[in-house]
Specification:
337 residues; 22-stranded parallel beta sheet; Pectate Lyase C-like
Length: 337
């Protein structure tokens, strides 16, 4: 029989997680819990009383040996770290003010992040890397230097990212060299880019690619922050980006269906000149975009353009999209409002 343990503020959550073992359910009471946590056992469920009611904040000492955030120093701490385990669920709590990520999941399978609030975590909100079969659902993520929700180098992600709200990040949702992901019904506003999916290569990183994904029925508006243009600012390692609702860079066989991209206006320089972009990533070490299906999207009220399609438009399928000014103009499959 799987164990279930109830933990109150002031009690040692890490000790309880370690002792409870595989398959346990650890329930956190309402209140504030200082310190970082490391989930080491498979099948563990860590469940709070709800976002804003159960709150994890920095404090105390980190668990000895906790894996550091990728490309960050050992002094950079995430709220919850999950590494090399399967079947973990984290649900119903807030993660606020950590110097790394709110949740950092690396080389995991079938991990579920549900009904979480990741607020003002310095680098990432909810960061899933080199993993498969993960779900991020009904979460809220804001105030991170890079992404609110990120899938990074998940080559066979089989991921489900749905019903989340992101704001105040460089990228609301970042699909970084990850394939076979489904992004549906998310709301991204007040970021530099709402949804950014990029295929590019980095020295020493796994093979990249963004293929066979579904990005559908997302509401992407008011993304006007400026990233990549100020040292120490939002997305400082990337190129300048602002005013982007949805961008697919170097993607292949991706379906962009029924997204509402509206009222996105740049506040700073941007390598992308419209709110909806499909383009090559070859100059970033990636591939040309081809074989994508762009269907039934509403792209209206954005500046300076509603859409930009780079390369050969004949490499993609466009049908029943509604938009104002775009490049190239008079493109088949796009009609004015």
């Amino acid at each position: 029989m799987m164990s279930e343990v109830f933990v109150r503020p002031g009690e040692p959550v890490q000790e309880v997680l370690d002792a409870a073992g595989a398959g346990a359910t650890v329930r956190l009471a309402e209140g504030e819990f200082p310190g970082s946590l490391w989930i080491k056992h498979p099948g563990v469920s860590l469940i709070g009383a709800g976002p804003g009611r159960t709150v994890l904040v920095p404090g105390g000492s980190a668990p000895p040996g906790i894996p550091p955030l990728h490309e960050a120093g050992e002094d950079v701490l995430s709220g919850i770290s999950v590494h090399e385990v399967a079947g973990v669920t984290v649900r119903g709590l807030s993660l606020r003010g950590f110097s790394g990520a709110g949740v950092y999941a690396h080389t995991v399978t079938d991990v579920v992040l549900d009904d979480l609030e990741a607020l003002d975590n310095a680098i990432w909100g909810l960061y899933v890397r080199e993993s498969t079969g993960c779900e991020v659902t009904s979460c809220r993520a804001s105030g991170s230097q890079y992404a609110g929700v990120a899938l990074s180098f998940c080559g066979q992600a089989d991921a489900f990212v749905a019903d989340n709200e992101t704001s105040g990040n460089a990228f609301g949702i970042f699909i970084d060299n990850s394939s076979k992901a489904r992004l549906v019904r998310n709301t991204c506003h007040g970021n530099a880019a709402g949804i950014l999916a990029v295929n590019q290569t980095y020295e020493g990183e796994p093979e990249g690619g963004v293929t066979d994904c579904l990005i559908a029925d997302n509401d992407l508006y008011g993304n006007g922050l400026a990233s990549g243009s100020t040292p120490g600012g939002l997305g400082e390692a990337g190129p300048p980006i602002s005013g982007v609702g949805l961008a697919l860079i170097g993607g292949q066989r991706v379906a962009l269906v029924g997204n509402h991209v509206h009222d996105n206006h740049p506040s700073g320089p941007s390598v992308m000149g419209s709110a909806f972009v499909v383009a090559s990533s070859k100059e970033w070490g990636g591939d040309d975009a081809f074989g994508n299906h762009v269907l039934w999207n509403r792209v209206i009220g954005n500046t300076p353009f509603d859409f930009q399609i780079g390369g050969d438009p004949a490499a993609h399928t466009f049908e029943a999209n509604l938009a104002g000014a775009g490049e190239p103009p008079h493109l088949a499959g796009w009609s004015g409002p």
